[in-house]
Amino acid sequence: MVAAARAWEAASAVPDPEVPCVTVADLGILRSVEIEGGVAVARVTPTYSGCPATLAIELAIEAALRDAGFEARIERVLSPAWTTDWITPEGRDKLRAYGIAPPEGPAGKAALFSVPEVTCPRCGSRDTTRISEFGSTACKAQYQCRACAEPFDYFKCL
């Protein structure tokens, strides 16, 4: 049990390469880490099947486990599919502090076709407008706050 906790601690500290203010555990993409036959097996669910950061994330988790003294194996788990509902409350707070508005509302198909009312992560105003469907990555949209005039990314509900 101690080894599994150490392995989780090592893997869960890996930052997301596209949004380095949050870890893979904060995002909920690190599903589990278990010791199986002396090998630390990390199960990872990518944010979406075409995410360009998936391999980088898996390699970083494997390296973190090896640096912690474990033989490591990564298993990609595609079902159930990841949703933004898996982002931890701490992860949402970290996104906001970094200047990225966290997802608002539950994930679902309807969220993909709506323009949500989004809270500005800088000043807290709800008087915001979407500038572009896509932000710095495909999983984010670009918004601007009318109150403080600052642009910001919004992590879409997926």
Automatic annotation (TrEMBL):
It comes from the Bacteria. Residues 8-67 form the MIP18 family-like domain. InterPro entries: Fe-S_Maturation_MIP18, FSCA_dom_sf, MIP18-like, PaaD-like, Zn_ribbon_PaaD. Residues 111-156 form the PaaD zinc beta ribbon domain. This is Phenylacetate-CoA oxygenase subunit PaaJ. It comes from Thetidibacter halocola.
